[in-house]
Amino acid sequence: MEMVLFFIFAAIAVVGALGGVLARQSDHSALFLLLNFVALAAIYVTLNAPFLAAVQVIVYAGAIVVMFLFVVMMLNVAHRERPETRPAQRYAGLALGGLFLVGLIYVVASHPQLPPELTRSDNVAEVGKALFTEYLLPFELAGLLLLIGVVGAVVLGKREI
Amino acid sequence: MISSSFYLILSATLFTIGVVGVLTRRNAVVVLMCIELMLNSANLTFVAFSRYLSSMAGQVFVLMAVAVAAAEVAVGLGLIIALYRQKKTADVDDVNILKW
Question: Is A88 on the interface with B (CB under 8 A)?
C-alpha cells in the first residue's frame, strides 16, 4: 500500500517537474510546479511528517506559486521573438544533467539502505518541541532572515533603484 | 515498508530536472522556479532521513529551508522586476554586463 502510494505521488512529482522545465510558457511552468509541490506534500504525509506537508502546501503551493504567477503576468514576456533554448545549450545541459544524475544514483546505491524506523505519533508536538527548545536560535534567525527578505523585496521593487 | 533509497532516488531525479532547467532555460522566472525545484528535492531528502533515522532535526531543518526559500523568492522576483524595468528583458542571456 505504501509502495503504491509512493509510486503514484513520485510519478506525479516527476511529471510536474518535467512539465515545469519543458513548458513553453512560463505561466504553464508555474502551474506544473504547483503539481510538483502538492505531490511532494503527499509524499511528506506518507513519511509521517504531516506538519511539513501542511507547511509545504501553505508556503510553496500557496504563497510562492502565486508570487511566481503574479510576476509572470506582470512582466508578460510570453510573446518573445527568440526561442527559449539554443540547441547546443540544450544538449550540453542534458548531458551534464545526465552525468549528475548518474553520480547521485551511484552515491545512493553505494550506501547501505536504512531500515524503516518505528513511527512516532504526534508529529506537530514533536516538531514544536524541537523548534522551541533545541533549535530556538535558528528559529529566531529564520525570522530575522524573513524580515530582511521583506525589506530587500520592498527596496528592489521601488521604481528608481 | 519501503527503504530509504526510493526517496533518495526520487529526490536525485527531481534535483537533476531542476539542474537541467537552470542550465537550459533562459527566462529568469523559470530559472528561479527550477531553483525552487532543487530546494524542494533537498527538503525531501531531509524529511526522508528524519523518518529513517527517527530524528526531528531533519524536519526542523526543512522549516528553515522553507523560510530561506520564501525570502529567496521574494528577493529574486524583486531583482527580476528591477531588471525588467531597467533593460526591458527577463532573459538571462541578455544580462551579461558582468561578463568580460
Answer: no
For residue A18, give the nearest of A36, A38, A42, A39 by alpha carbon.
A36
Identify all chain A residues contacting B10, using CB atoms and an 8 Å cutoff: 10, 13-14, 43
Number of Cβ within 10 Å of residue B6's Cβ equals 16
Which residue of B37, B50, B53, B83 to mutate against A (max A Cβ within 10 Å)?
B37
ipTM for the complex shown: 0.91
Q: Is A63 on the interface with B (CB under 8 A)?
A: yes
pLDDT on residue B5:
86
Take residue A39 and report the three cell numbers written for it.
505531490
Q: How far is the first Cα of chain B from the last one, in angstroms, to the nearest whole number? A: 54
**What pTM did the predictor assign?**
0.90
Q: Is B28 helix (H, G, I), strand (E, B) or coil?
A: helix
By three-state DSSP, how is residue A158 classified?
Answer: coil
Q: Is A105 on the interface with B (CB under 8 A)?
A: yes
What CA–CA distance (Å, rounded) separates A22 from B75? Answer: 25
Which sign, positive or negative, has the C-alpha torsion B61, A51, A30, A94? positive
Instruction: Render the burial of B14-51: b for 16+ CB within 10 Å, e for the rest.
Output: bbbbbbbbbbbbbbbbbbbbbbbbbbbbbbbbbbbbbb
pLDDT in tens, B50-64: 888 888 888 999 999
